[in-house]
Design goal:
Layout (H helix, E strand, L loop, with lengths): L1 H17 L4 H22 L6 H10 L8 H21 L7 H12 L30 H14 L4 H14 L6 H15 L12 H14 L3 H27 L1
């Protein structure tokens, strides 16, 4: 894993060098990520909208015939949550527990408003996983402790990946835990000047297997290796799209 970490830091330095000269490309890049992060994060959870259909929904407000209303509402909610995350990334105040709840609230505000931003009041299970989740009565103290840790941690890849793992392991919400955790991870990456991590449906099995190995057996390396590889891919995408702006 040392090699991929080293490559990530080299590419991050190159991205930092390009940023002052690449302002014209940043808006287009953000619009690309609106679609890419929304499509991939929702697709992992079973949303049936394609990448093109997701773009039609969040960019043009169109309704896709034959697709469930819930899928449309999830796309809209994720786009709003991503907008909030980008705003938080520009601030200097600590990321707090209340911010995590607000990210979740925006994700579910359209699709399931009764659960938006609310910790679950019943026990939860993860389909296909033997992981035993905390009981409902444990969630508030666990999330309070998580919030204290989150507000003190230094943004960057290690903190981002740890925050993602901690939140999905607590699993405080009835639905939307994965989407919230992935946005929180990307918030901490964006704050530190990194590209966001995109985890597509084609990565789902490796993503979930590596996460479960960490949760059940404490095997951290496969999880970190996977996420560093996805971070490197995000940096490659940033550099590919911003280099033409540098040359213009």
């Amino acid at each position: 894993m040392t090699d991929v970490r080293s490559r990530v830091e080299v590419k991050k330095a190159e991205l930092d060098r390009l940023r002052p000269l690449a302002r014209r490309g940043l808006a287009a890049l953000a619009a690309w990520y609106d679609v890419e992060l929304t499509y991939t994060s929702n697709a992992i959870e079973g949303n049936t909208l394609t990448r093109v259909e997701t773009a039609e929904v969040i960019e043009k407000g169109l309704t896709i015939g034959g697709k469930p209303l819930k899928d449309h509402l999830e796309a809209i909610g994720h786009k709003e949550a991503l907008r909030f995350v980008r705003d938080l990334a520009q601030r200097e105040d600590p990321v707090r527990e209340s911010d995590v709840r607000q990210i979740h609230a925006l994700i579910l505000m359209s699709a399931d408003p009764s659960e938006a931003g609310k910790y679950s009041d019943h026990d939860r299970v993860i389909k296909g996983s033997p992981l035993v989740l905390p009981s409902a009565w444990e969630l508030k103290p666990l999330m309070s402790d998580f919030g204290v840790w989150l507000s003190a941690v230094e943004p960057g890849p290690e903190a981002a990946f740890d925050a993602h793992a901690k939140l999905v392991t607590i699993h405080p919400f009835s639905d939307g835990n994965g989407r919230t955790a992935r946005l929180l991870m990307n918030l901490l990456l964006l704050r530190a000047g990194y590209a966001p991590v995109v985890i597509g449906p084609e990565h789902r099995i490796r993503y979930l297997d590596s996460l479960q190995a960490l949760q059940l057996h404490g095997h951290e390396e496969p999880y970190k290796q996977f996420l560093y590889e996805r971070l490197e891919s995000g940096l490659d995408e940033h550099l590919r799209r911003l280099h033409p702006d540098l040359e213009a």
